Amino acid sequence: MTTGGESSAEEMLRASNTLLRALTRAQADFIRGEEPRELLQRLLTVVLELTHSTSGVIGELSATGGSPPSLLLLASLPREEAGTAWELPPRRDAPGQEPGDLRALVGAVFTTGAPVVSGGPGSPHTFLGLPLESGGERMGVLGLAQRPGGYDTGLLDFLQPFLEACGGLLAGGRQEQRRRRAEQELRQTQEASAERVRLLAERLRLMMDSVQDGLWDLDMPTGRLFANRAWLGMLGYAEGELEHTQATWVRLCHPDDEAASERLVQEHLSGAIPLIEREQRLLRKDGNWTWVLTRARVVTRDEQGRPLRMVGTNVDITTQKRTEERLRALIRTLPDIVLRQSADGTYLDYHAPKPEDLAVSPESLIGSNMRQLPFPNPLLDKMFMHLGRAIREGTLEVFEYALDMPSGREYYEARIVRSSQDEAVSIIRNITERKLSEARLLQQEEELRRHRDSLEELVRNRSEKLLKATIELEEQQAQLIQAEKMASLGQMAAGVAHEINNPVSYVMSNLGTLDQYVSSLTPLLQLQRELLSQPAGTSAELLERMGELWKQEEVDYLLSDMPELIEESLAGTRRIKEIAQSLRSFAREDTGEPQLVDVNTEMASTLKIVWNELKYKCEVKRDFGPLPPVSCHPTQISQVFTNLLVNAAQAIETRGEIRIRTRHEGSEVVVEIADTGKGMTQETISKLFTPFFTTKPRGQGTGLGLSVSYGIIAKHKGRIDVQSQPGQGSTFTIRLPTAQR
Of 293, 13, 320, whose CA–CA distance to 163 is shortest? Predict the structure, then answer.
């Protein structure tokens, strides 16, 4: 059994029903005369199955003479030899160490007289020991072992009916033994000689006083009734408080039981039944009624066959009747129809909260056969198939069926389980409401499916519209970035032109000088050509003229100055090429796919573009650390750097400093651009990344630079932060995730 939740409550109810059916069956079998030992063995098997225990014992406490107390095993699983006795330790006030087996557990229960629970969840050994009592007297011990997860106090309430029933069976067994011994003594008394009648009668009276069951002896001709002390004590009377007559007996009987008791007596006296056996109520001294089981028979008749003497026993079964009443109360709470059937389909007993739910009248159900019910033949065949399989194979058979009732079509669920070798119990539950709920649920699910399909179509349409809008937004954003980029180029056009004009100027100057040098060297080269074309021996005059010309044109100076002019010109053209490449990279549109980029390289390229904006207002200090590659759109990152560097230069009013620092922190590349400009207030910082917000005069800024920069960094899953105070400059920090390897 488990605890918690609706499924656990149903399991507990099923377990309680199973246990109550087993107890009811056992008590009925005990009344019919079956041995308590076999009944206890069956009940122990049921309890082990319901509590998921692997072993257990039921024993009767026994102590005779001066011998030590012992426990006589009446039922055990695994089975031990019948009649095995376990010696018990002396009683003491406190229990010792936790038991390690069932024998030790039984000893612990005996010594404490209270339930013993040992082990818990995760423990390799778990035990539960409970005393068995009847009428305040300890009769025996129940021991259970090896339940997964251990035993808890919740099992005590569940097992209470079982404990009371077992205690009653032990007490009943003892009473039955005493009754048999009493009857044997009575028979011996009858067979004894007349000379020993008086002696035997005296001994019988002494014996009657010593046993716990109520014993009585009725002299039928005189109506004189002899009863032992136990019979008087059972009704709360002391010796001498009741008149020992048959009339007293009749006065103590419950009025509702008198007619049935008198009928049984007459049937026995006529020889129709061999023994009077009857459950009835007797009035106690305190005014309450006690249930007793009366067994009696005539033991002496005269020569004409008239009864002379009747002896009998009364066993107090009040506790048993209360247990049965609790069982019946539990059964009455069941909303289901419960039927007990034999293998051939005959109804033996039933429970119906609403008799009108039965297919036939309650009066005609008991003793009738299932084939006599107004059911369709296919349904009857199905019922017999499941009934036979449940009894034959011991399986739980569950099936559903429908019937057309006067109130409409009703649906039922049948559960059939074997209760004995040739009997089964069927639990019939009306599940019409559940079926209707299931139908409504299916209808709701179908309606929900339609709504879901409609919603999915709506979501799909909206997703397509959203995707289209996103694409358009991305295109507009790209256009905005490109426009801002071109605006930045426009603002820097004069500076870039100036940057290009410087190397162009000195390249043109050097080319002019080289043109003069070439003009000076041309006559010398022509004389050299004539010299090479003259025959040998005629070159003296030409050589002399070449020497004069060499000195006149200062050829040595020209030859030494020309390499320097050429190197300066090449350096200028390289500078022009670098500026052109940086401009082309900056102005180009993105390909759409991110690239692996070295941020330090992009920063250096951007500095070349904006250098003319910086060099006249500030000193740029670089602190580039080694960086891993970043997956990004390089032109967009360059746009961010350009905006921040130009803004930093414009924030410096006269002359200042810009510090650029790059570093690698964890999974991020960090770029810091700090200036010593005029700084910003917190109000300005709060609006800094808002589109079209600018602190520049009208016509000197669009107000989109930082807004676009913020969007670019966010698009790259990065962050851009700013720290600034008026008069203390500003620091922009960009964090970009490194490329995943």
Answer: 320
Region label for 731, one of left (φ > 0), alpha (ψ between -120 and 50) or beta (otherwise)? beta
- Smallest Cα–Cα separation from 545: which of 526, 527, 520, 525? 527
Question: How far is C-alpha 455 from the chain's CA centre?
Answer: 32
Q: Is the pTM of this model over 0.70?
A: no
Distance CA 293, CA 279 (A): 5
Q: Which residues contact 116 (CB under 8 A, 6 or more apart)?
A: 95, 99, 105, 108, 109, 127, 128, 129
Q: In terms of DSSP bridges, do strands 137-145 and 127-134 run parallel, antiparallel, or are they unpaired? A: antiparallel
Give the model's confidence band at 538: pLDDT under 50 very low, under 70 low, under 90 confident, else very high: low
Contact assessment for residue 175 and residue 192, using Cβ atoms and an 8 Å cutoff = no
Measured in whole angstroms, the distance separating CA 101 from the mean position of its chain's CA atoms is: 34
Q: Rounded to an integer, what distance in angstroms lies between the CA atom of residue 458 and that of residue 472?
A: 21
What are the residues whose beta carbons fall under 8 Å from the beta carbon of 626, sequence distance 6 or more?
664
* Length of the chain counted residue by residue: 741
Percent of the chain with pLDDT over 90: 7
Q: Which of 30-39, 432-441, 544-553, 695-704 has the highest mean pLDDT?
A: 432-441
Record the tokens describing residue 302, joined without a space. 């005269």
Residue labelled with tokens 């095995």: 84
Residue 151 half-sphere exposure toward CB, CA atoms < 13 A: 28
pLDDT at 586: 55
